[in-house]
Amino acid sequence: MIRVLILFLAVLPTAAAAQTGMDRMGSARSVALALATTGDTFDSGIHVNPAIPGYTPKRDVTVFGRQPFGLAELRHAAVAIRLPVPGAVVQTGAGTFGYEAYRETFVTIAVARRLSLGTSRALSMGVGARYQHVGIDGFPSVQAFSFRAGLLVPVLASLTAGVRADNLTGSSIAGEPLPRSLSVGLHYRATPTVNLYTDVYKDVAFPWSLRGGIEVWPVAALAVRAGAARFPARFTLGTGVRLGALSIDISAESHPDLGWSHGGGLSLTW
């Protein structure tokens, strides 16, 4: 418990921003790209822009785990599954953060639909809901619902723009407002093996944040990733291995004062 208190004091200036960022963590790939995936067309996980599943309809399951600064008390894990249904794609998942004395648990569901723009292009729209439960040892548990929406639009053959809004209803939990944010992002496919990402992210309670990432595939089965962001400042690295339907991803994120956090995940497509 002492370690947790020390850590909390160390990151207090960015604690709420980090909480917002936790909503965006559902794959090691996204973390390695500094969470700049609002306009992404590839990523899978509980965290994604709710429009992404409709843009790339497929069946997959993604598992993610992260333990910041090596502390078990800050462990974060999530799982998500995406399934096409007639006329739409449904994604649902669950996650957890914390330990026995403090535990956040959340469950999400989203529905996305792809809409044609003429004969060669299509946009995707998605909406989602999130149930969050917080349990603190010795206190009554609390829970809340929040809602989100997203849009993914092809601008050019190699450029996609995304918009995502979280906590549309301004929900709160135990009297404290849940993070409420808007992000706008771009995914630029510079070459068949190089992807560039950028996000402008704004939480209503904090200054705007600029995020960016790059993903390079030097060979067909191997990806190398890096990213950076401001407020909170972060630098990220990662790699991914694709073995047929199975993808294995690893990420590392640097905090300017506390050092590195590592994460990993698996994604299976069928």
Q: What does this 3D model show about the protein?
A:
There is one protein chain. The protein has four helices and 16 strands. The protein has 270 residues and is mainly beta. It is globular and about 60 Å long. The N and C termini lie far apart (43 Å). It has a single domain, classed as monomeric porin ompg (Porin, Beta Barrel), CATH 2.40.160.40. A 14-stranded antiparallel β-barrel has the order 1-2-3-4-5-6-7-10-11-12-13-14-15-16.
Which key features would you list for this structure?
270 residues; disordered N terminus; mainly beta; 14-stranded antiparallel barrel
Topology of helices and strands:
Blueprint: H1 2-11, H2 15-22, H3 28-32, H4 52-55, E1 60-67, E2 76-85, E3 88-99, E4 102-117, E5 121-136, E6 142-156, E7 159-166, E8 172-173, E9 176-177, E10 181-191, E11 194-203, E12 209-219, E13 222-229, E14 234-243, E15 246-255, E16 259-269
Outline of the structure:
The chain has 270 residues and is mostly beta strands. It is built from 4 helices and 16 strands. A hairpin with a 5-residue loop joins β5 (121-136) and β6.
Structural class: mainly beta
Number of strands: 16
Q: Might you state the CATH topology name?
A: Porin
Level of helix content? 10-25%
Major sheet: 14 strands, antiparallel, barrel
Order of helices and strands: HHHHEEEEEEEEEEEEEEEE
The stretches of 5 or more residues where confidence is low (pLDDT under 50) are: 1-21
CATH architecture: Beta Barrel
CATH class: Mainly Beta
